[in-house]
């Protein structure tokens, strides 16, 4: 048994143990999953939301690829986006699917363009996270938002403020520095070595992004739409499942921190860790049923990803991509 298999088993064990503990303690009600069976309209809405988010996320990735001069068709972008979602679920670590879709694009390009594709994957991830933080900050710090009326939200508000600095302000400063000193950085990166060429290609990619702020703003806007839909849908599911009246602003305060916990590479697809985090966050702001609500939401989010095996089997008819280095 190799190291990767051991990691996979360990992550499954962590997720299983946390879910078992929450269920045994009465915190997690697994029977709530029946809501999709009892209310078919919720199942249809869940599938429609998944399809919508998959399509516009693919458009965001395609838009960012265009910034670095890589063009793919809309159909291929959507297909690869779904394949990426499939591998993010079935492969340990949430970055697996993103790397795979990048490999499928990079293999058809000249070696000097490949670093730009992998750089775009990183930018896509950052923009996706920034969109989540924008929605959370806008709703949480609105003039009549809950954070100003309820002191229980102050700790959450501080965490969101830190995320604003890390995901919005810091990247903006970095882009301004690259825009101003990019040519000098390119000269510093000039080297005949493999590493030097890679760094040089990444600097060139960064300069291309810094020169296209409107494209980045468009990509950020797409991320905002995706996460706003996600928050609204999670709030609706939580209302139905827990029987509480949960405002969108309340949900926007806890949702980003909870979803960030699911990205930690210590359990399978964020299960278990996300359940525990949402239970604590709900309790922090005077709500209950966080573990049950996120369980239904994550299952509803994860199950359609498995359908990505269909476009993947189509891709398998092409030459199987080998492991490519960005350079």
Question: Would you write up a description of this structure?
Answer:
With 327 residues, the protein is mainly α. It has one domain (3-38, 108-300). It has helices spanning 3-24, 35-38, 40-67, 74-90, 96-106, 111-140, 146-149, 154-189, 194-210, 213-242, 248-262, 273-284, 290-302, 309-316. Helix 6 packs antiparallel against helix 11 (248-262) and helix 8 packs across helix 11 (248-262). It is globular and about 60 Å long.
Could you write a compact summary of the structure shown?
76% of the residues lie in helices and 0% in strands. It contains 14 helices and no strands.
* Low-confidence sequence ranges: none
When the domains are counted, the total is 1
Overall body shape: globular
Q: What does the main sheet amount to?
A: none
Beta-strand percentage range: under 5%
Q: What is the averaged pLDDT score?
A: 82
Structural class by sheet pairing and helices: mainly alpha
Count of helical segments? 14
- Terminal Cα span: 31 Å
As a whole number of angstroms, the C-alpha radius of gyration is 21 Å
- Compute the number of strand runs: 0
- The percent range for helix content is over 70%
- The H-and-E topology, N to C, reads as HHHHHHHHHHHHHH
């Amino acid at each position: 048994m190799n190291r990767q298999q051991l990691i996979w088993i360990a992550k499954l064990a962590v997720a299983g143990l946390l879910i078992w503990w929450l269920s045994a303690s009465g915190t997690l009600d697994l029977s709530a999953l029946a809501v999709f069976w009892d209310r078919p309209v919720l199942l249809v809405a869940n599938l429609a939301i998944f399809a919508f988010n998959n399509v516009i996320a693919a458009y965001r990735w395609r838009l960012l690829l265009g910034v670095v001069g890589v063009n793919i068709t809309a159909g291929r972008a959507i297909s690869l986006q779904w394949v990426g979602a499939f591998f993010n679920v079935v492969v340990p670590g949430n970055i697996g699917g993103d790397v795979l879709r990048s490999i499928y694009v990079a293999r058809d390009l000249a070696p000097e363009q490949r670093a730009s594709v992998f750089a775009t994957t990183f930018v896509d991830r950052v923009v996706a996270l920034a969109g989540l933080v924008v929605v959370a900050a806008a709703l949480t710090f609105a003039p009549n938002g809950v954070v100003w009326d309820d002191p229980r939200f102050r700790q959450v508000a501080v965490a969101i403020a830190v995320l604003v600095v890390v995901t919005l302000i810091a990247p903006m400063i970095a882009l301004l520095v690259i825009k101003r000193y990019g040519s000098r950085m390119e000269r510093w990166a000039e080297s005949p070595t493999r590493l030097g060429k890679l760094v040089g290609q990444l600097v060139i990619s960064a300069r291309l992004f810094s020169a296209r702020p409107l494209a980045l703003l468009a990509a950020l806007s797409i991320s905002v739409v995706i996460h706003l839909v996600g928050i609204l849908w999670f709030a609706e599911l939580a209302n139905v499942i827990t029987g509480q009246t949960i405002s969108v602003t309340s949900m926007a305060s806890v949702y980003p921190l909870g979803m960030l916990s699911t990205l930690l590479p210590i359990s399978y697809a964020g299960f278990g860790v996300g359940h525990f985090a949402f239970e604590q966050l709900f309790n922090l702001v005077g709500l209950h049923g966080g573990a049950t609500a996120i369980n239904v939401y994550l299952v509803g989010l994860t199950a359609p990803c498995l359908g990505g095996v269909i476009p993947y089997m189509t891709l398998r008819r092409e030459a199987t991509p080998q492991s490519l280095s960005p350079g």
